Every structure is written in C-alpha cells, then in structure tokens.
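Aim 2 progress. For Gamma-glutamyl phosphate reductase, the working sequence is reproduced below.
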Amino acid sequence: MTIIDTLGQQAKTASRDLAELSTSTKNQVLYQVAKDLLENTDYILSENAYDVSNAQSNGVSEIMIDRLLLTSERLKTMAKGLCQVADLADPIGQVVRGYTNRDGLKIVQKRVPLGVVAMIFESRPNVSIDAFSLAFKTGNAIILRGGRDAIYSNKALVNVVQKSLVHQGITPNAVQLIEDTSYSLAKELMQAVDYIDVLIPRGGQKLIQTVKETSKVPVIETGVGNVHIYVDEYADLEMATRIVINAKTQRPSVCNACESLVVHRSVAKAFLPRLEESIQNIHVVEFRADKEASRYLTNAVLASDEDYATEFLDYILSVKVVDDLEAAIDWVNHYSSHHSEAIVTTNINHAERFQEAIDAAAVYVNASTRFTDGYVFGLGAEIGISTQKMHARGPMGLEALTSTKFYINGSGQIRE
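Predicted structure tokens for this construct:
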C-alpha cells in the first residue's frame, strides 16, 4: 500500500464522518481553529522562516518570496478568513429545487459534499488554511500537496489544524498533507480515482497544464492571470492612471495583477506619458510595447507575441494601442487567460459592450482587477479562481465544493 493509498482511504472514511456534522459543530470547530492558529503564531512563523531562508539562498526573487512569506498580520487575516467562512450560510442540505412530477413522485434536489478534494498548489502557504476552511464547512475531506518551497510552512499549518481538530473530537484526517513533494507522488495523486472526487491545481501555467494532461481524476482548472486593462477613448485618464498603477504594482506576484495594457489610439499620447511618470513614483515598471505605444514611453522595449501572452508576475507591463472598442475586445479575447479583464470608460454603452463580449470569469468597469478574490467578494476565502465554464467559475467558495443529490419519495409508484 502506497502513501497515496493510505491518505486516500483515510480521507474517504473521514469524508463520511464530516458529511454528518451539523452546521453549528462545523462553525464552532472553525472558530477554534482560528484561535489556535493565532496562539501558534511564533511556531508557524519560525517554520516559515526556514522556507524564506531557503528561497533566498536559492536566489528566488523578492516578488516570489512575498508569495511565500507569512507575517503576524497575514496570520490574522487567515484566522479572520476562517471565522468569515464559519459565518457564511452552510450550503449543505440547501434545497436547489423541489417539485412533484406527473407520476406523483415528490422530488427534491439538495446540495451535498463532493466527498474527497485534492489540491496541488505552489508557494503560498495561506492556501492550506483557505482550502481546509472551505472543504470542512462543506463536509469534504481534503488532501493537500504543496510545493517544496513552502514545505515547512505547510507542515506547521496543517499540524496546528490537525491538533485543533483532535482536541475538538474531530478526525484529523479531515485535512492531510503529502509531505513528500516528489513528482512521482503528485502523479499518483492525480490518478487516484478510487479515492479522489475532484482535483484542483493552483499555481503557474506549467503546473496547471501538467495536471490537466496527467490527471485521471476530474480537474477544476484554476487558470493563470494574463489580465488586461483597456483604457477607452472615453476614459477618465486620472482614474485610469490610478487603476492601472494599483492593478500592476500593489502586489504584482498574484494572478489578478494587471499584465497587459490596451489603450485607444486617441488617448495614447496623453495617457501613456502620464502613466509612466506616475507609476515610476511607486515602482519602476518595464514597458513592453508596440511601435505606436513606444513613441510615447521613455522606458519601453518592443513587445513580442510571447510578451502579450505572458503572465509576468513582475514589474513588467505589455502595452498595445488599438483603433476602437471592437479591436480592443478582439485583442483581449485573443490573449486572455479568461481570468479578469477591465475597461476604464465613462461611456455606458462601451462599458456594457465590453462586459458582454469579453470571455472571462470577472469583467470590470472602472475598477482595479485586484479585487478578484474570494475573500473580497464575500466568499470568506477561496480555493482558487476557476477559468473554466463548468459548475464553478471565478473565485470558488463554498458552493463550488458541493454537488447535488436528488431525493425521491413515492407511495408505491411503478413505471408502466
């Protein structure tokens, strides 16, 4: 029996126990885990320090180290997220619809847990807590496989959660961590169809593509963020400047950060120099621009097709000048990763056209794309941001981790 067999069997058994927990019990458990998380701040941060030190020794960039870093404030935010999930309505048992059919059968469709969720993710250890909270609230067991860069942090976080569960009389197998970060075990997890009901990858394009190509378990794809902002001919340029600066520089290492700027030709001359001057006061940004945009920028190199398709996760921004709204829509849809896209405009018709025509999970008008986040959207936390068009799209909260079951009650009917 392999490690995956053992973890899978334990998760399967745990999922049956979790499915029977009451909402009040689940909420009490989440509140206590939040308290225990904060009480173990020193332990968690000391373990996180090993990961950060290793990353620094391996020459990892400061931007990517920021994804890895835990602080007291970030732990407080994680604890707050646990409490917020506890405060949300429990979807389990919710009636989706109920009716009586022509045969007199009373049919009710209710939300139920998926069962066992597996997650393969990179870098950000806070994902461990977010994933646990959402899975637990929806009665699912979860198996986590983080990257080797965050192994000490993930082990510490899961250890705290499991001890808290045991103290509260809940099976610690509600959340399990694969501590061996070798690819062979990850591959085995991707093919563990006897145990895993759904697999969620969360990380870079290479990871997601590998999981899609290798997994035999159903996958919910959480896509990369090649995020665009289109500055329309009717844009308020002061507003556009603030929005682009925030979306690019506030935290460039995350999937909802702006990677590509599209500008209407009529405002390019006025807008691009203004943006360049203002953004450099926050942080130096390298512009990779087409010939038209390069005329108005002092710190620009000519962009390649690859640049326009790249999620930089860095202080780099591709720039394209277009002739009209339809050209902007075509450009964005061609290069979009279907995550988050935005338009800045005062023209309501252009705003509505952009939102309807753009194929993405989140489409903004006059706001930074940095808001695409389960916590910000009021979902308590997120297990990922789905760019698929299945039952889950955009930030995935509680409902995304449920399925439905039909309950049918009769009075002796048979089908003729």
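The chain has 15 helices and 16 strands. This observation will guide construct design in the next reporting period.
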